[in-house]
Amino acid sequence: MKIRSNKSTMDLGIQSLLLHFHKQEASIRQVMGLVRTRNSSYLLVLFISFSCFEFRCAIDTITAHQFIKDPEIIISNGGDFKLGFFSPTNSTYRYVGIWYAKVSASHVVWVANRDRPLKTSSGILNISEDGNLVILDEEKKIIWSSNVTNSVSNPSAQLSDSGNLVLKENNTGSILWESFQHPSDSLLPKMKMITDTITGKNVQLTSWKRPSDPSVGAFFADKKGELKVIITVTVVIGSVFIAICTFFLYQWMAKRKGGIYLKFHGEGNYLAVSMNKDKLEELPILSHEELASATNNFDQSNKLGQGGFGPVYWGKLLDGQEIAVKRLARTSGQGLEEFMNEVVVISKLQHRNLVRLIGGCVEGEEKMLVYEYMPNKSLDTFLFDPVKRESLKWRERFNIIEGIGRGLLYLHRDSRLRIIHRDLKASNILLDEELNPKISDFGLAKIFGGDEDQANTKRVAGTYGYMSPEYAMEGRFSEKSDVFSFGVLLLEIVSGRRNASFYYNEQITSLLGFAWKMWETDNIAVLIDPVISEPCSKMEILRCIHVGLLCVQDFAKDRPSVHVAISMLKSEIIELPRPKQPVFTTIQVAPETECSNRIRIAGSVNNVTITTLYGR
Predict the structure, then answer these.
(1) Measured between alpha carbons, how far is residue 503 from residues 491, 507, 584 in Å?
(2) How far is it, in rounded angstroms, from Cα 108 to Cα 534?
(3) Mapped to the 3 state alphabet, what secondary structure does 181-195 carry?
(4) What is the pTM of this model?
(5) How far apart are the first and last CA of the chain?
(6) Can you give the pLDDT at residue 309?
(7) Other CB atoms within 10 Å distance of the CB of residue 499
(8) Which residues pair with 430 in a beta bridge?
């Protein structure tokens, strides 16, 4: 018999009655004969009562001939518990479980196929020929079994009002298997935490891995009720080390940034991020095994690119979600500090023009960040490719410029934190399937306090050619530092050329120098990419070049804010000031393929020295 989960009690009674008519034709004939000789109303009531009684007896039981198929359920005799198929929050996988029937927010107390979810809604819970309770997938393959070794002839599985699913032999009444001896994460009132006398196995509760994944987690409770973490001595030492580092990091950052800190905790496997008295924000932690499986063991064919942080791989999680896995290279000079910095910064931000962080992984020396996957990769792969560039007409390019501006404005003014990105460039602008831009790579980002307008650093890091003069030479950065980078991007998008593409030109040192020369000689049309050189867009393109030159002026005070720059681009400000010559552009910019231009500069502001070069 199959019981539907979305029928009322009356519907179930009617279904049972109809089933009774089909299965017991002889009985029906007898009753129909009686109807002709007895009071019809009385017999009809009696017959329906009998049928409902028979149905009531079978609603809590599964036999070899009475199975349930997704999304059907059975209900315990007193109506306290239900058993059937369900999907956890934020998951499409299907599991067989037991949950409370009389609570609005049903809590799952037991899961059968914890580590082997069904990927479709075609599952069946049945009793097999050898007497085992089994779950079958869409191909009728067994994905879970009660694993009773002795074959029995007349078994049934009954859901009791205690929440216990009991598999027994009907002829003798002997219990073959019960869910109370194989609990999940919940201790029910009549459950006893004792050692299984048959197998000798100690009965214990085990936590879910995360709210969306009921597979076995990191915690268990034994018969003494003591909560223990299943870890090795090595992990204990590592955890202590992380705790000490986190404490000192908190102390240091609390003084400088108002109390930002990270906390790793095992329950549910989450990375908690907190700032001041804000509510903890949690990011799922994915295991190395999960990410290795998703990326085909970090195969080279899955590699999307390489950055200063390390390689980035395409992957696909078990639930079908596509991801980009950013893996810290062991030779990277960035390490834990920038890893944690990126987690802290981006976990606080939500905007359609910022890339979304899905989770992270920290296991031993492995450190990985998991992002939403951008199928069109980064802006530079389109903009500087002679073939792909053809698909970036002016309308697409202007939409990209506007999107970058909106994302930058959110960082500077509209988010609850004030963020200076410090590494805005074409390769850090990702494009989704509709070519919408998303700013990425927050490893170098800095958080400003409410009353801060600029800051100094002895550790300058960024990409040469995109860094403002005051930041590259003196270590001073502010919103106007990002505005300079935005101006470089504007000129690159309009021209289709890299800032460093003039490295071998003896007359012109950079794209900024070339743009200024064309501006001064009234020959700006030469700067415009022929792909977008259309008469109907000419004025808008010229305005973008004008705004770009205003953004790359040498002195920060001369540059517009992002808000003003956006207003200029949208012609909300009609009259634009004349830009000043960017003298800083006389310094030659080397291409990334020739030498690294992601740099770190250390030293005082009066004595700047380049100490280390890192590939980007």
Answers:
(1) 17, 10, 15
(2) 62
(3) HCCCCCCCCCCCCCE
(4) 0.54
(5) 64
(6) 73
(7) 28
(8) 378, 438
What single DSSP character describes residue 389?
G
Collapsing DSSP to helix, strand or coil, 448 comes out as: strand
CATH architecture of structural domain 60-229? Orthogonal Prism (2.90)
Q: What is the distance, to the nearest Å, from the Cα of residue 297 to the centroid of all Cα atoms in its chain?
A: 19
3-state secondary structure 309-345: CCEEEEEECCCCCEEEEEECCCCCCCHHHHHHHHHHH
Look up residue 118 and give its DSSP letter.
B
**Catalytic: 80?**
no
Distance CA 255, CA 423 (A): 25
The label of the residue with tokens 């990334």 reads: 592
Q: Whats the size of the chain, residue-wise?
A: 616
Q: Give CA–CA dist 471/488, Å, rounded.
A: 15
Residue 26 has pLDDT above 70, yes or no: no
Mean pLDDT of 152-176: 92
The upper half-sphere exposure of residue 287, i.e. CA atoms within 13 Å in the direction of its Cβ, equals 14
Confirm if 101 and 79 have CB atoms less than 8 A apart.
yes
DSSP-H helix ranges across 394-476: 394-409, 469-474
- Chain region(s) in the chain for CATH 3.30.200.20: 234-372
**CA 361, CA 370: separation in Å to the nearest integer?**
8
Q: Tell me the pLDDT tens digit for each residue of 132-144.
A: 999 999 999 999 9
Look at strands 124-127 and 108-111 and give their pairing: unpaired
Q: What is the pLDDT of residues 447-464, one digit of tens each?
A: 775 555 565 655 666 787
C-alpha separations of 557 from 68, 454, 551, 580 in Å:
72, 12, 10, 12
Instruction: Please state which CATH number belongs to domain 234-372.
Output: 3.30.200.20
Angle made by CA atoms 457, 462, 465, in degrees to the nearest 5 = 120
CA 206 vs CA 3, 88, 230, 392, 432: distances in Å? 30, 17, 10, 53, 40
Statement: residue 49 has pLDDT above 50: no
Q: Are 309 and 334 in contact (CB under 8 A)?
A: yes
Which residues make up the CATH 1.10.510.10 domain(s) of the chain? Answer: 379-614
DSSP state of 212: T
335 or 519, higher pLDDT: 519
Catalytic residue (choose from 423, 441, 482, 529): 423
Q: What is the pLDDT of residue 582?
A: 84
Other CB atoms within 10 A of residue 547 CB: 25
Q: Which CATH number fits domain 379-614: 1.10.510.10, 1.20.1250.20, 3.30.420.40, 1.10.3210.10?
A: 1.10.510.10
Task: Answer for the pair 85, 94: CB distance below 8 angstroms, yes or no.
Answer: yes
For the stretch 371-408, what's the b/e string if a residue is b when 16 or more beta carbons lie within 10 angstroms of its beta carbon? bbbbebbbbbbbbbeeeebeebebebbbebbebbbbbb
Six token digits for residue 446: 């800095």
- Report the chain's C-alpha Rg in angstroms: 33
**Amino acid of residue 430:** L
Angle at 560 between CA 469 and CA 481, to 5 degrees: 30
